[in-house]
Amino acid sequence: GQCITHCPVGALAARDDTEKVWDAIADKNKVVVAQVAPAVRAAWGEELGIEPKDATVGKILDSLKRMGVDYVFDTTFSADLTIMEEGHEFVQRFTGGELKERPMFTSCCPGWIRFIKTQFPHLVRYLSSAKSPQQMFGAAMKTYFAEKIGVAPENIYTVSVMPCVAKKGEREMELFYGEYAGHDIDAVITTRELAKMIRSAHISPDTLKDIESDRPMQEGTGAGVIFGATGGVMEAALRSAYYIIKGQNPPVDAFTAVRSRGFNENDGVQEANFQINDITIRTAVVSGLSNARALLQKIERGEVHYDFVEVMACPGGCVGGGGQPIHDGEERAFERGKNLYYLDDNAKLRFSHENPDVLTMYEEYFERPMSHKAHMLLHTEHDAEVVNYGKGMC
Ligand code: SF4
């Protein structure tokens, strides 16, 4: 992890939220609903001595159920949902002529959001309005899912397991839904805090079984899994943007040029242009905030021109996040990223727009990407004046 020595979001002062989660589990009035981010599966085994091939997300879900969590989900589902919203937003902004002032920036990394709001506030209007997968899942849990199980949103307690310390600040984003005024997410624990909870519950890692996430938000595609690595959001979004524009799928490896070649290549910036029909989409992917700063300065000086830019605060993306296991003097993000690309290669579904459970949720609830309801629950207004992400941490 980057955190102890270089965490871009100031994780040294991170608070421990495990007690809050134990209290919610003990509260008989609460239905505790958890989600596990893609990058966690690539690293949690390091903390508990489990080999990467055996450290599956299914075993994390089993550990959460054995600790008393009522429903367990994989954030890969809502990464696919994010792509549906952000992919449509990009195509709409790009082809509708609305986005004359390009590029559109991704918005799922709270370390990056805090950085742009404080360092480049005049560029905030270029951010996608899509909430992150963590926040979208929380909103879906307290609305769509709450209705399915017949529980009021105030009695649903949403927990996320994240590779990230800044996600603890992002969770303060508000959710308004009918009578309910609260938060999408109630508690965030990091990968390290998850390991601590497994130990304190005296769960022996070798007794964990590979279980599936709960219905109806069960499926996740390979496109959702690669969100945890730098370039993953861009690649997943382009796979679906191609489909939205052309009405057919691209070859699944059409956009691998956005993947990182390693931290020290090209100042951490991966540039690529893609042709879809008569449209050229100019993309850039960058990780690490000093690399992001250099890239933004070049954009401002007019030296480079892009249509779509992915930024992740942690070098290598979330796999290198501040909440991941730490190994003195050793950076494992790149290796962990390969693990996610392996999972994508072997996934039965590779396109977010083919996630059957996401499509069912649209049919039953959100109607279509960018609908009024989707705007109310799955998007946010970014305001350069308001920086509440990472409050008390950075
Ligand atoms: Fe958190 Fe990922 Fe952003 Fe790092 S790159 S701050 S882990 S969301």
UniProtKB/TrEMBL annotation:
Which keywords describe this protein according to UniProt? Answer: 4Fe-4S, Iron, Iron-sulfur, Metal-binding
Domain of life per record: Bacteria
Q: Which residues form the signal peptide?
A: none
Q: How is this protein named in the record?
A: [FeFe] hydrogenase, group A
Which co-factors does it depend on?
A: [4Fe-4S] cluster
